[in-house]
Amino acid sequence: xxxxxxxxxxFGALNLSAIAGSTYYLRSHLIxxxxxxxxxxxxxxxxxxxxxxxxxxxxxxxEGKATEADRGKKMNExxxxxxxxxxKS
Length: 89
Description:
It is a single chain. The radius of gyration is 28 Å and the shape is rod-shaped. It is an all-alpha fold. It has helices spanning 7-63, 73-80. Helix 1 runs antiparallel to helix 2 (73-80).
């Protein structure tokens, strides 16, 4: 067991443990940043969908196609649909 006492073995083991620890830390940090980015993207997507609905409703009112009962309907429809667009097989 004298090879366990050699400096090369000790430094090698320390080196491997440092690499493993930093890899684990970077992976967890990357996953956290990915989840945060995804949440921000979902929020932006919902905002954009709501604005698109408002613009379409305004256009319908300008063209005279919309009634008072339709107000807010498209915005809620687009905003409620966010994050649910999935490929249909």
